[in-house]
Amino acid sequence: MSLLLISAVVLLVAYLTINWCKDQQKTPLPPGPPFLECLQITWRMLRKNDTHLIAEDLRKRYGEIFNIRLFSSNLVFLNSSRIMRKLSVSGQYRNVTNDRPWTFYGHFICYGCRNVSLRNYNEMLMKVRKMVHGTIKLYGDGIKVFDDMVNGEIQILQKELENSKLKASFDLCKALKVSLIRVIHIFLTNERPKDSEECNYICDTVEEFDDVDNEMFNSVLLNTCPWVRFLPGRGRRLYKAALEGRDKLNNLYLNSSIKERLKGHGKGFIGKILSEAEYANEMEDEDIKGIVGEMVTAGYLTTKGALSGFFLLILYYPEIQRRIQEEIDDNIGSDREPSLDDRGIMHYTNAAILECLRFISHVPVGIPHVTREEIEVEGMRIPAKTAMVTNYWSAHRSDKYWDKPDVFLPERFLDDDGKLLPSEHILRSQLIPFGIGKRNCVGESFAKSRMFLYVTSLLQRFNFSPGENKLPPSDSKLWMPNSTMMPAFLNCVVAKR
Predict the structure, then answer these.
(1) What is the DSSP string of 26-78?
(2) Residue 423: is it exposed, middle or buried by C-beta count within 10 angstroms (0-12/13-18/19+)?
(3) Which stretch of DSSP H or E encloses residue 375?
(4) What residues are designated binding site for heme?
(5) Distance between alpha carbon 185 and the CA centroid of its chain, in Å?
(6) At CA 484, angle to CA 481 and CA 488, rounded to 5?
C-alpha cells in the first residue's frame, strides 16, 4: 500500500511539474496573488460574497487585468472599460470571449440557462436578443399607452408622498418598490392591477422571487459547491426558496389561462413574446419562463437599486437636490408633468443620474464571460474555458480615469457651458453600468428612462430631507454585497414644494 501511495505521489508531482514547465515556455498568464493568498481570497468570497471589494484591492496591486489561479483553474478579472471593450467588442476577440460559464442559478433556476443573459454566444442568442429588444421597443418608451400608464403610476406615488407629509419618518424604499413593481406588471401585461388585493399579491410574489435571486445570482458558494443544496444550511434554504419563488412567479404570469388571454390580444411584453415565439417556432415553454423571469428580475431590481441609491445621495447632498429642482423649474415648470421629451434639456439632472450610476455601481460585477479558445491580449495569455469577470466597480472607482472617484460629483459629466458631455466623450465611455457590446443589458434605455421620469416627477413636487432619521451609508461599498446592491432602508421626511 505504501509503495502504491509513493508511486501515486511521484506521478502527481511529475504531472504538475511537466505542466508547470510547459506553462513557463508559453506567454505568461495575467499577474495575480500567490497560491496561498488565492486560497484565502476564495475562502473570503465563499463566506462574504464581496467579490467587487476584493477585486478592487487586487486591481491596485496588479492593474487592469489580474488572475486568481487555483491549481489549473483561472479566474481573470477585467478592471477597466478599456480592456472590457477590447475583449468583448473588438473584432479580434468578440467571437471567442462572449460565452457564459456554468452557474448554479442558470442551471437549476433558469432551466439550463434558458433566459437572455446566461445563454452562450451563438445564433440562437442573437435571435432571442433581437426578439426581446424589439418587444421592449413595442411596449416601452415612446408608446403612448404605456407612457400614460407609467405616468399614472407616478401620480399614484405622488399622492402617497403627499399623504405622508405629516410623518416624521416615511419609508421611501417601500413606496418605490410598490410603484416600480406596478410599472413592471404594466409592461408585462399592458394592464394595471385590478385592486389593492391583487396589487399586494403581485408585489409579494415579485419581491419574494427577486430578493432570493438577488442573493443567489452571483453566489460564490453555490457556483463553487453546488452540492451544498443537499445539506442543511443557507445554500439549501436559498435553493428551495428560489424554486418556490420561480414557480409562484410562473403561476402569476404564465399559467395557461393568462397566457391565452395575453397572447390572444398581443397584450404587453408577455403577449407579444408568446406570439413571436409561436410564429418563429424556435422557442419552448421553458425559454419563455426564463425570459419573463429575467425581465421581472432585471426590470425591478436594477431600477430599484439605482433609484433608492439616488434618493439616498440627495439626502446627503441637499445642494444637488436644489440644483435639480431649479433646472426642473426653469425648463419644465409646475404646470405639466415631466416627459421623456425633456431629457435633452435637463443637463444637470442627467449628469446627476449618470454620476449616481457611477458612484454607487449598484451592479458591481457583471456576469462572467468565458473564452472559447486560448487568446493573447497585451502580452498576457488567457487559456480556453477561462471565466473573465467584468469588474464594473473598479472601472467606476479607478483614479486613473476618474478625478476624485470617491466623491459624488455630477459636474464631472458637464462641459464648461454646463451642457451634458456627449455620449462619445472619453469620460462617458468609461461609464458602463449596463455592460458593453453584445452582452449589454437589453433593457438599458428602458431602465434609464424610468429613472429620469421618477427623479424629475418626484423632485418637481417634493423636497426630501433626512429629518431625525438615521441614514444608511452613502458609500455603496458599505452596503450588503449582492448581485444588485441597494440601501437597506431609506426613511426620510417628505414635504410638498
Answers:
(1) SPPPPP---HHHHHHHHHHHHHH--HHHHHHHHHHHH-SEEEEEETTEEEEEE
(2) exposed
(3) strand 375-377
(4) 441
(5) 19
(6) 65
pTM (2 d.p.): 0.90
- Domain architecture of the chain: domains with CATH: 110-363+398-496 (1.10.630.10)
pLDDT band at 164 (very low <50, low <70, confident <90, very high): confident
In order, the DSSP letters of 276-337 are HHHHHT---HHHHHHHHHHHHHHHHHHHHHHHHHHHHHHHH-HHHHHHHHHHHHHHT-SSS-
* pLDDT category of residue 351 using cuts at 50, 70 and 90: very high
Query: CA 470 to CA 460: how far, in whole Å?
Result: 25
pLDDT, tens digit (0-9, with 9 covering 90-100), for 270-310: 888 888 887 777 788 899 999 999 999 888 889 999 999 99
Strand partners of residue 493: 465
Cα gap 171→169, rounded to integer Å: 7
Separation between Cα atoms, residue 295 and residue 268, nearest integer Å: 12
Q: In whole angstroms, what is the distance from residue 345 CA to residue 328 CA? A: 10
| Residues tagged in the binding site annotation | 441
Q: What does the pLDDT average to over 93-109?
A: 93
